[in-house]
Design brief:
- The chain crosses the membrane at residues 37-56, 68-87, 93-110, 117-142, 162-180, 187-202, 208-224, 236-260, 330-352, 359-380.
- Residues 191-336 form the O-antigen ligase-related domain.
- This protein has 404 residues and is an all-alpha fold.
- It has one domain.
- The chain has 20 helices and no strands.
- It has helices at residues 2-19, 23-27, 33-42, 44-56, 58-65, 69-80, 88-111, 114-138, 140-143, 160-180, 185-202, 205-224, 228-251, 253-260, 269-280, 302-310, 320-353, 357-370, 383-396, 399-403.
- The chain is globular.
- The model has no long low-confidence stretch (mean pLDDT 92).
């Protein structure tokens, strides 16, 4: 019994470190060079926990990893981009970080069955939820925004969208834990309600849309698993609904942006995309090196030109697809695209064959939406990337393979 508890605790510890919920209380809103150094060192225990979980079961870890060939081709391109990077030292450091982050997700997928994995994820979110309520209520100078959006809750993150977006994912995962573990369903449903509360208190409309999309995806899985007829009806309803949504966005974009509280540039994102596309033309095949652009302070590199054309300095491309193209060229973007297609295909198949879809499908639907406006794919030291990798590998390495 003790080894299982220790392994569960190590997995939750790994995820809590990657959540970044400790960064704001530790180094404040604007980390200087000393703070950045602290952050880099602070992730080392997460790497160690991932390697430790792999070492406990290396055979299954290898068997799980090889079932996602495009994912590891992508990581290979990340590492190779060091050779053509405009900042080789930066790319080398961050390539090592994203490799360790990715292996952490593989370790989780290879170690736990679906219901166990759901509870590992849910326990992590439960800690983050409790801590967020505590810091918002008891220490509002940290947990509540005072300048840009006075009164909006940000919890353990630097701004309200960080809290809202994280809790939208949290609701999907905790709800799946409740459905996959009926004995503790009341506990997990309680935390799911608390997650909704944090989304609302963040006042983030984008996060609220993500939450609603997650609820719809979870409902789709529940209905589709009731039988062939229900599955067919749910599929056609989902396809029709998606088509109507796209038509609404295209034909009534002003109304759509007004509902989200955004302008037509998506808070400047389209300006970043246009500027990034201009720079991509310089190195379309290989890119500038994994995450080499955004730390460039030379004043003459791609970052300077993107900032000039966009009208402000961005921290990333605000689009997961453009981010891969910028960093690793068409080869990197193709590898990411193939990995994503494989994962989503497996998730759709699992909807009709595997209860694990209750955990994977809603998360991946919300992830797909967020990836259009944020650079969350192939992201080093990133909670959402760890979860994506764990679910992608788990879909390719289901419980029956783990038991074999």
């Amino acid at each position: 019994m003790f080894p299982q508890i220790a392994i569960f605790t190590a997995a939750v510890f790994l995820l809590l470190l990657y959540s970044g919920g400790w960064e704001l209380p530790l180094v404040g809103e604007n980390a200087d060079e000393a703070g950045s150094a602290i952050l880099r060192v602070a992730y080392l225990p997460a790497y160690a926990a991932g390697f430790g979980l792999i070492a406990l079961d290396p055979r299954n870890s290898f068997r799980a990893a090889v079932r996602q060939p495009f994912l590891f081709a992508l990581i290979g391109i990340v590492c190779l981009s060091t050779f053509w990077s405009i900042a080789p030292d930066v790319t080398t450091r961050r390539a090592f970080a994203v490799t360790c982050t990715t292996l952490g997700g593989v370790a989780l997928a290879a170690r736990f069955r679906w219901r166990e994995l759901a509870e590992v994820f849910a326990a992590t979110f439960a800690v983050l939820i409790v801590a967020s309520y505590v810091v918002c209520i008891a220490v509002p100078r940290i947990g509540v925004m005072t300048e840009l959006f006075p009164g909006a809750w940000r919890g353990l993150w630097r701004e309200k969208n960080g809290l809202g977006g994280m809790m939208a994912f949290g609701f999907c995962i905790i709800s799946a834990a409740a459905l996959l573990n009926p004995k503790r369903a009341r506990l997990w449903w309680g935390f799911a309600v608390l997650a909704i509360g944090l989304v609302l208190m963040s006042t983030s409309k984008t996060s609220l849309v993500s939450l609603m999309l997650g609820v719809a995806a979870l409902g789709f899985v529940l209905i589709a698993r009731r039988g062939p007829a229900a599955g067919t009806a749910a599929t056609w309803t989902a396809v029709t609904g998606f088509g109507l949504l796209i038509a609404f966005v295209v034909l009534a974009s002003d109304v759509f942006f007004a509902i989200l509280g955004k302008d037509a540039t998506l808070t400047g994102r389209t300006k970043i995309w246009s500027a990034a596309l201009v720079e991509i033309q310089e190195r379309p095949w290989l890119g500038f090196g994994y995450h080499a652009i955004w730390g460039d302070k030379s004043g003459w590199g791609p970052f300077a030109w993107i900032s000039k054309n966009a009208g402000f300095q961005a921290q990333h491309a605000h689009n997961s697809w453009l981010e891969q193209w910028l960093g690793m060229g068409l080869f990197g973007m193709a590898a990411w695209g193939l990995s994503y297609i494989q994962t989503m295909t497996l998730a759709l198949i699992a909807v009709f064959r595997d209860r694990g879809a209750l955990l994977a499908f809603p998360f991946l639907v919300v992830y797909s939406l967020v990836a259009l406006t944020e650079s969350i794919a192939v992201a080093y030291n990133d909670f959402r990337w760890v979860l994506f990798v764990a679910l992608a590998v788990k879909l390719a390495f289901p419980d029956r393979e783990l038991e074999r």
